[in-house]
Amino acid sequence: MERTPPDRERVLECYQDGVRAIRDLAARVTDWSAPTPCTEWQALDLAGHLRCVAESYLEYLQDAPDSRLAKLFAQDAAAAVLIRQQARQNAAELAVLPPEPGPGRITSFTVSAGAYADLMPDMWDRTHLVYRGTKYTVGDHVGAACVEWHLHAWDLARAMGADYRPKDPGLLVSAWHWGVPHLPLAAVRDGARGEARGDAGRGDAGREDAWEAVLRSSGRSPVWPEPDPSPRPQARRRVRQPRRSPEGTPSPDPSHAASSR
Q1: For the Mycothiol-dependent maleylpyruvate isomerase metal-binding domain, which residue ranges apply (predicted)?
Q2: pLDDT digits (tens, 9 = 90+) for 97-145
Q3: Most C-beta atoms within 10 A of its C-beta, which of 37, 50, 57, 130?
Q4: Which residues 6+ apart lie within 8 Å of 19 measured at CB?
């Protein structure tokens, strides 16, 4: 398991790449009611969540090391408890957002994410929180923000029927270990942790490429939406004699004229 702190410059670049990806993908969304890989969330809900998270991250940074997030993690609660509490917070914040279109929510996200980026370099080594006796710095939490932005960029892409892959998935593996200490990460195949371009395939024996490991560890399926496994009932067809063309050769059955996709 990778325990080396991620390189600062790579984290800063990855953070900006994530914000840029969300902004660019959101500009291509034509249907904000489209479903996303986030259960029960449409694209509009996802945009609202991004706004809420960016505003919360900015608050945590400004209040470090005494933020409400730090106080939550200081309880040394089980991971399941932390997940439930954060899920309730996410739902509550999303519920009280004013009605606004998706692009407006993404603009608010971009503003807060930019303010966070302006402040974090000077606070990089400040304690952000302490979890089970280990100190995690602001720089560690920036890594968590990188993971958040790139995962939600993928969500937006999938909602449009497209795909997305970060430039530096290996960085996200290291950032996960330091920025999301309460959640385990799926095993990454040898050689995939440090890959910069993310072009490696699936590994062996349950080990996955770096980006797929991050997706699955976050509860996502890399092939969302999953294909429908139930077989479709086939209508019974009457047996007919083939039509004859003027030349006497059988004509093609119209039901087979188009190739299946």
Answers
A1: 17-157
A2: 999 999 999 999 999 999 999 999 999 999 999 999 999 999 999 999 9
A3: 50
A4: 110, 113, 114, 117, 149
Residue labelled with tokens 């706004």? 51
Structure tokens at 240: 């007919």
- 156 burial type by CB count under 10 A (0-12 exposed, 13-18 middle, 19+ buried): buried
Q: Are 149 and 15 in contact (CB under 8 A)?
A: yes
Q: For residue 113, give the nearest of 17, 178, 6 by alpha carbon.
A: 17
Secondary structure element (H or E) that encloses residue 7, with its range: none
Residue scoring higher pLDDT (191 or 33): 33
Count the helix, strand and coil residues of the chain and give each as a percent rounded to the nearest 5. Answer: 50, 5, 45
User: Tokens at residue 175, please?
Assistant: 């950032």
**Cβ(52)–Cβ(108) below 8 Å:** no
In angstroms, the Cα distances linking 61 to 64, 129, 134, 140, 179 are: 5, 10, 18, 12, 14
8 Å CB contact between 25 and 154: no
In this structure, which amino acid lies at residue 245? S
Q: Give CA–CA dist 41/195, Å, rounded.
A: 32
Distance from C-alpha of 91 to C-alpha of 52, rounded to nearest angstrom: 10
According to DSSP, residue 243 is labeled: P
Q: How far apart are CA 178 and CA 194, in angstroms?
A: 15
